[in-house]
UniProtKB/TrEMBL annotation, chain A:
Residues 187-200 have a biased composition (Basic residues). Residues 19-201 form the Pyruvate flavodoxin/ferredoxin oxidoreductase pyrimidine binding domain. It comes from Candidatus Ghiorseimicrobium undicola. Its EC number is 1.2.7.7. Keywords: Oxidoreductase. NCBIfam families: PRK07119.1 (NF005507). It is an enzyme of class 1 (oxidoreductase). This is 3-methyl-2-oxobutanoate dehydrogenase subunit VorB. Residues 186-205 are annotated as: Disordered. One of its GO terms (molecular function) is 3-methyl-2-oxobutanoate dehydrogenase (ferredoxin) activity.
TrEMBL record, chain B:
Keywords: Oxidoreductase. One of its GO terms (molecular function) is thiamine pyrophosphate binding. The keyword Heme does not apply. Signal peptide: none annotated. InterPro entries: 2-oxoacid:Fd_oxidoreductase, THDP-binding, TPP_enzyme_TPP-bd. SUPFAM superfamilies: Thiamin diphosphate-binding fold (THDP-binding). The lineage of its organism: Bacteria, Pseudomonadati, Candidatus Omnitrophota, Candidatus Ghiorseimicrobium. This is 2-oxoglutarate oxidoreductase.
Length: 359, 242
């Protein structure tokens, strides 16, 4: 990793997120160990000092998210990473960050729940990630990579979106994606600079009030009507994000009679199934949401045929399926197949579910 | 005649929301006097707690950041590590610092974070209606200990300052009070020391201020001050702890 010119590297999804953060200019990491994302803090503990950044192994996830809040308040690009139970602990802090309109990146490499569950890959935190998660009227922007390359690329996007909208951005992956190794291309991305890069770039940041009026970073709004005014301001921001930032991939949807909808690791497996089935002349395609919030409704604006069937496949008991139903708006049938608790639907399973047999 | 008692430049000239006889206003003023005297207004960043002092930033005329209940020190750590040249302090009540934020307090101190903490010990949760705090005295009546705090069920008053003192990362701890003019002068000296320590990169400094809450002690302001000097200071002795 030392060689900046090196542009093709073999790396895990977790490390790709960490390196993406470094190359995005993130200079603050705080986190508490939890499987299956431990490669991120390990990588950051080595890499942050190399670029003049800060690495803190915090006493808890509660502390980690608040440390990130403090770092973000100074204008620094900051990140915290965890997995499902740890992300539950961070929710109060994420809500404060959303309320105070701070940019921050939060990574959830999901494992199976509820409770301690197990450390197998899962997609069962979709509701928590996309519907607010913590208390109050707010939204995270949620990005769902489905390859190691995308772990890197979407981390760069996450920091840009966080700064652009002054909003928390969550990267939602799972244990399989985090642990998987693939070659990725980092060439063409911004080279990192040493030390904090955002000095005085954010006029609202708390840095000491030399030469200007004091700044305040807070979510508290007690005066009558102030909170409502603020939440309407947030709503307008969210509307703008919904309009401008929907991202998705369509794969073989032309003339498709059946369209699978899947994200992250599940989309990768579904893609394999679609490829095989297309080779056997089955009219099947895939829509892969890349932004989970805003949900890419635009991808469903027009169905290829009036009787297209949608099949949502998830590593959960069915959470994204509700957003697909809303996006399809009753125009076409929406079915669901999922495995949960660490179970992962295979290509064969998906094929059988659709055609009732191997094809 | 020369005017010798002025409003500190760092203190905003508006009435506060605090109850009559509350100690928060005195502590706010002392901090602002110290900030002015050290000439650090343009590089200080305050972290306000969740508690009665939640809007302390309305009275402090310098950069401030909010923190979730108990997380002031974590927020301060994030700020200070990114801006080591700034002077960063937290201002926290006993619920915030010694109950819900106990882990953040101990670990920030143990890492020797170069920060200053002003700890307001009023023995109750003022903001939420006078419930028991970790620092509530035995037999003290609160909204949630109507028969008085009992060791058997609620444990003993938590002496967080004494608990922190042995940690190698801790540079300075002093317990002060605001129940008389002399003690207010001593309190200011301690606050100043805690900020100077940060300027000199000495590590974690904490000043615990025994502070009256007449409303939830159910006392008139002079009686609350007397109670601090005659009762509370016996359980929480004043002076340098480290
Ligand atoms: C997570 C969370 N739990 C509880 C509360 C409610 N709450 C607000 S302030 C407070 C206690 C404040 O007491 P203390 O820290 O002693 O400060 P004081 O008000 O006495 O100055 C509580 C329990 C909250 N805001 N957030």
């Amino acid at each position: 990793m030392k060689n900046e010119k090196l542009n093709k590297i073999l790396i895990t999804g977790n490390e790709a997120i960490a390196e993406g953060a470094i190359q995005a200019g993130c200079r603050f990491f705080a986190g508490y160990p939890i499987t299956p994302q431990n490669e991120i803090p390990a990588y950051m503990s080595k890499r942050m000092p190399e670029v003049g950044g800060v690495f803190i192994q915090s006493e808890s996830e509660l502390a980690a998210i608040s440390m990130v809040m403090g770092a973000a308040a100074t204008g620094e690009r900051a990140i915290t990473t965890s997995s499902s139970p740890g992300i539950s602990l961070k929710q109060e802090g994420i809500s404060y960050i959303a309320g105070a309109e701070l940019p921050a990146v939060i990574v959830n490499i999901m494992r199976a729940g509820p409770g301690l569950g197990n450390i197998w890959p899962a997609q069962s935190d979709y509701f928590q990630a996309t519907k607010g998660g913590g208390h109050g009227d707010y939204h995270n922007i949620v990005l769902a990579p489905s390859s190691v390359q995308e772990c890197f690329d979407l981390t760069l996007s996450a920091f840009d979106l966080a700064d652009k909208y002054r909003n928390p951005v969550m990267i939602l992956g799972d244990g399989m994606l985090g642990q998987m190794m693939e070659p990725i291309q980092t060439k063409g991305h911004r080279p990192h600079t040493k030390g904090p890069r955002s000095k005085n770039q954010k006029p609202w940041a708390v840095t000491g009030c030399a030469g200007r009026a004091p700044n305040l970073v807070a979510s508290f709004r007690m005066a009558e009507g102030e909170m409502e005014k603020h939440n309407i301001h947030l709503k307008n921001k969210y509307d703008e994000i919904e309009e401008k930032e929907q991202r998705f991939e369509v794969f073989y949807t032309d003339e498709a009679e059946i369209i699978i909808v899947a994200y992250g690791t599940m989309a990768r497996i579904a893609k394999g199934a679609v490829k095989n089935l297309r080779a056997k002349n089955k009219k099947i395609g895939l829509i892969r949401p890349i932004t989970l919030w805003p949900f890419p409704k635009k991808a469903f604006a027009q169905s290829p045929r009036p009787n297209t069937q949608y099949l949502v496949v998830e590593m959960s008991n069915g959470q994204m399926v509700e957003d697909v139903q809303l996006a399809v708006g009753g125009r076409c049938p929406v079915e669901f197949y999922g495995r949960t608790g660490g179970g992962i639907p295979s290509e064969e399973e998906i094929t059988k579910i659709i055609y009732g047999k191997d094809v | 005649m020369e005017k010798t008692f002025n409003l500190p430049q760092s203190l905003v000239d508006i009435p506060t929301h605090y109850c009559p006889g509350c100690g928060h206003g005195v502590a706010h003023r002392l901090i602002c006097e110290v900030v002015d005297e050290l000439g650090i207004r343009d590089k200080i960043i305050g972290v306000a707690p969740i508690g009665c002092a939640v809007i302390a930033y309305k009275y402090w005329d310098f950069d401030c950041c909010e923190a979730a209940h108990g997380r002031a020190l974590a927020v301060a750590v994030g700020i200070k590590r990114c801006r080591p040249e700034a002077i960063v302090f937290t201002y926290q009540g006993d619920g915030d610092l010694a109950a819900i934020g106990c882990a953040e307090t101990i670990h920030a101190a143990n890492r020797g974070e170069n920060l200053t903490t002003i700890f307001i010990n009023n023995t109750v949760y003022g903001m939420t209606g006078g419930q028991m705090a970790p620092t509530t005295l035995l037999n003290q009546k609160t909204a949630t200990t109507p028969g008085g705090r009992k060791a058997k069920f609620e444990g003993y008053p938590l002496k967080i300052s004494e608990l922190l003192a042995p940690l190698p990362g801790v540079a300075y701890i002093e317990r002060v009070s605001t129940d008389s003019p002399q003690k207010i002068i001593a309190a200011k000296k301690a606050i100043k020391q805690a900020f100077v320590n940060q300027q000199q990169e000495k590590g974690f400094s904490l000043v615990e201020i025994l502070s009256p809450c007449p409303t939830y002690l159910g006392m008139k302001p002079p009686d609350a001050a007397k109670w601090i000097s005659e009762v509370l200071s016996k359980e929480f002795p004043l002076g340098r702890i480290k």
